[in-house]
Write a structure and sequence with these properties.
The complex is a heterodimer. By secondary structure, chain A is an alpha/beta fold. Chain A contains five helices and nine strands. Chain A has helices at residues 42-53, 55-60, 73-83, 98-102, 140-148; strands at 12-14, 20-22, 30-35, 63-69, 88-91, 106-107, 111-112, 115-119, 125-130. Chain B is built from six helices and five strands, in the order ββαβαααααββ.
Amino acid sequence: MIAAGTAVPEFTLKRGDDSDFSAADLEDKTTVLVFYPFAFSPVCTDQLNLYEEVLDDFAAQGATLYGVSCDATWSQTAFAAKLGVSIEQLSDFEPKGEVCRAFGVYHPGGFPQRALVIVGPDKVVRWSYQADAPTDLPGANLIFDALAS
Amino acid sequence: MSDLGSAPIPATATSDLGSAPIPAAATSDLGSAPIPAAATSDLGSAPIPALLDEDHVRGPGGGRTLIVYADFECPFCAALDARLRALPADRVVFRHFPVRSSHPRAWPAACAAEAAGLQGRFWEMHDALFADPARLEDPHLWERGRGLGLELDRFDRDRRCDAVRDRVKRDFRAGVRGGVVTTPTIFELGDDGAVVRLGRDEFGPRPRSEPA
């Protein structure tokens, strides 16, 4: 997967309102991209619920979280609404998985690996992490460790 | 003076319409409000604490000591609790891990258990909450408080107070720091003070729908 110290590639993801989210949207802030396999799956549910619960702490660290998956925007929007999470969702639906591939987190099964990428205001990756298996859920503490380092 | 001018419908309106007397001190339930974050985050990794003075502990010494991070609105936690109670030799330490987005009543339920604890009835409320996790609205909490013989006005004040919310928050944040990601999560406290995570399968068969 994309390594710390690497500039992020150019990319385009879709926001919930179908507008584009590109590398330019990473400028001037610290971003945590949360790549997750599938909307509505059990582990992804736990993951977004947990990160949502400590969202104020992420904000206090100056970090903005986004969920990224290959689900369609409609599915992501329904997923976030079902959980009641406010973390913005970004879709890598078409061409499917193109951004996941660019970040080196595309699973051969056709979905994102469970991966975390922290990007600095200069659009350079500060930290990246891929779970050993898509069913492993990285604790929020790992992200806070990385943000503090 | 008229109080019938325009006002928005409360966003969190629920069907709390069962018959139950309203405690004198009832105020609007703030259980779903966001918890203010500390200015500097203290959520970096740290070991799961061994026994704390403020922990809720039940069961005899001599067997295992199990530390359970759980949420009263989590059906898998209720199922685990039933399995743990079939192992009476173990000592159980309960810690709160409420996550409001999927479980909007988890925080109010956790605070209710703490408020009952201030009247010496934490475990009784713990059992009453897990016995019926689908009924966690305010009248249901009052009903449980009455059933346990709590001083109801005090219970209702306490469950909304900052000290109780901070108590729940301390458990939750220590869990986050120790890598807890979902409920229930179980640790065993060894005689040497080491805290080791256990799999849920060690406590009898899981319900078919329960994720590993």
